[in-house]
Specification:
single chain; Aminopeptidase; 4 domains; 9-stranded mixed beta sheet
């Protein structure tokens, strides 16, 4: 049998349900095959990983796992032959065992990687703007300015290796030096990130590789029947359904799962703020069924966003990471960012998405889900090509711009009248100019959140700063904090750390409310409680208090609906 037939048979095996032994035969043939190039090894890997996550039976699970465990050796064999493996640098195929991930990781993730993984180093020879290195490294490397400020083609790596103590890795030592600077964590991160250092991670047989990452979970789920397609999913019934059974993780378990989330996203050239600064004490796990487990996290108080609450989730099916989620919430509205990894987009994406939103509704109390235009194609060619808009539209998400809504209505008429019709890409680009909204339990109609965007609040503050404070950020911060403290009749002199920061951030927005001082004492006390809760143990409590404050909600909806928002 030719290699092409072996690969085609393995790819067909993903949909062979019932399998009648054919999936097992396809995997056995793949295990015997000798793959001579990276492109075909990538095809083999992706099909096997899909079958490992969505096996027809126990034998398919075991067989696919066994062949996957040989992938790192196959990569090594091809490297010895100088075979082109550049396909594994592409986002769709990155993170395979045996390959190398090289990118500009942030300060926090670079520290996390070097603390746990020996095979992480800086690639000094790969830098688009080497002058930036000289400016940043000179504070740690004596006399580097002699070359860095005057000469071209400075070997910064040579200088840094000379300064690194014996037995230490230069990147690890450099990060330690950054950690000793008398600056805040955010300021250190900004300085390091400005250097744009390329960090190289040789995955080998790392447990964080896509190939080998597995987490213990519910009993394996086998499906020898067709997987759940979008048409099989009652989206509204799931999202608005009864609470899922959830388990609060111990801090140790939470840290372990955050490590898994950070590692597996880094192996895919990605970072997510909510994982990087995740709070292990807030970690939850839910098992909605079908071998699926969702791990849900908040963010540590000192790294929270000024206004919105941040929650992230990582989804596993039969122990394999298949998707991630980020939700940014204010009152009952959550901006929902969901991504199924490329490998699993033929799996049960719709059912998983519904279960994630169900969990968000349960834990964060949100009922209005907003999808950013980027996710449906705004400056995102991959979303346009995949027709991502229709993924959301068929669940009941609606455009918040009336002009876009009319375009969508016309397209739906064409789809109904012309079997096989596909929306042109130029039309999808016109559609991807406003956010989409789904509101649990509401009929598709205009709501208070249609024109709201968090950006409008920030722009209103910035315009006020430019107009009344001469562009002085420190002055507007001080004046707003003083005015809001007087209006709320509260002293903040003893507020420290995250409490102080939460108050100062909110004060910038609250000072835009003209009648704040006239609010009732009960309304003011409730607002102070909200500001305290922003820096509290869990932002879910903060959201709960926000939703109870009717007057604050009305004021922010008004302010946040003035301006361009998402419309472009």
């Amino acid at each position: 049998m030719t290699l092409e037939r072996v690969l085609a048979g393995l790819e067909r095996a993903k949909a062979l349900r019932p399998s009648r032994g054919r999936a097992e035969k396809a995997i056995a043939a793949a295990g015997r095959a000798r793959v001579p190039d990276g492109a075909r090894l990538a095809r083999l890997h992706e099909a096997l990983l899909f079958l490992r996550a969505y096996p027809q039976n126990r034998r398919v699970l075991a067989m696919s796992q066994k062949v996957l465990e040989t992938i790192a050796g196959e990569i090594e064999r091809l490297e010895e032959r100088d075979t082109d493996l550049s396909i594994f640098d592409e986002l769709e195929y990155a993170g395979v065992a045996g390959t190398t991930v090289a990118t500009e990781f942030s300060y926090d993730i670079a520290r996390w990687l070097t603390a746990r993984i020996p095979a992480v180093e800086a690639s000094w020879e790969v830098h688009d703007q080497p002058d930036r290195l000289g400016e940043g490294l000179a504070r740690f490397v004596p006399l580097l300015e002699e070359e860095a400020l005057a000469d071209a083609a400075v070997p910064h790596g040579v200088w840094l290796k000379a300064a690194t103590p014996p037995g230490r890795r230069d990147l690890s030592w450099l990060l330690e030096r950054f950690g000793s600077l008398p600056l805040s964590p955010r300021e250190r991160a900004e300085l390091f990130d400005a250097l744009a250092i390329v960090v190289s991670w040789r995955l080998g047989r790392s447990r964080y590789s896509r190939t080998l990452l597995r987490v213990p979970g519910p009993r394996p789920f086998f499906s020898d029947r067709p997987l759940l397609a979008r048409r099989d999913v009652d989206f509204g019934a799931i999202v608005g359904g009864p609470p899922l059974p959830i388990r609060r993780l111990s801090r140790r378990e939470g840290e372990r799962m955050l490590d898994v989330a950070r590692g597996t996203t880094a192996a895919r050239y990605r970072e997510f703020y909510g994982f990087t600064h995740g709070d292990a004490s807030t970690a939850l796990a839910a098992r909605p069924g079908r071998g699926t487990e969702i791990f849900f996290f908040g963010v540590v108080p000192e790294r929270r966003l000024p206004l919105r609450a941040t929650h992230t989730a990582m989804v596993f099916v039969n122990g394999v990471a298949v998707a991630y989620y980020e939700g940014l919430s204010l009152f009952e509205r959550m901006e929902a960012g969901f991504n199924i990894y490329y490998t699993f987009r033929e799996g049960e994406s719709a059912w998983i998405y519904a279960q994630v939103l169900r969990l968000c509704r349960q834990v964060a109390g949100v009922t209005s889900f907003s999808v950013d235009p980027y996710q449906i194609g705004f400056h995102n060619p991959e979303a346009i090509e995949s027709g991502a808009f229709w993924f959301y539209r068929k669940f009941g998400f609606r455009p918040t711009d009336p002009k876009v809504a009319r375009i969508v209505a016309a397209e739906e008429e064409r789809v109904a009248a012309r079997p096989g019709y596909r929306t042109p890409q130029r039309t999808l680009r016109r559609i991807a100019t406003c956010n989409l909204l789904y509101e649990v339990g509401r009929r598709p109609a205009k709501s208070g959140w249609d024109r709201f965007h968090i950006r409008n609040l920030g722009l209103a503050v910035d315009r006020r700063m430019a107009r009344r404070f001469g562009g002085d950020a420190q002055r507007i911060q001080r004046v707003s904090s003083e005015r809001v403290a007087r209006a709320l009749e509260v002293s903040t002199r003893r507020w420290r750390g995250a409490d102080r920061e939460a108050f100062e951030n909110w004060a910038l927005v609250l000072d835009l409310i003209p009648d704040l001082a006239a609010w009732s004492r009960k309304e003011k006390e409730a607002l102070v409680g909200i500001l305290r809760a922003k820096a509290g143990r869990d932002e879910a409590s903060y959201l709960r208090l926000l939703r109870r404050h009717v007057r604050l909600r009305a004021a922010l909806l008004r302010l946040g609906s003035r301006g361009p928002g998402y419309n472009v």
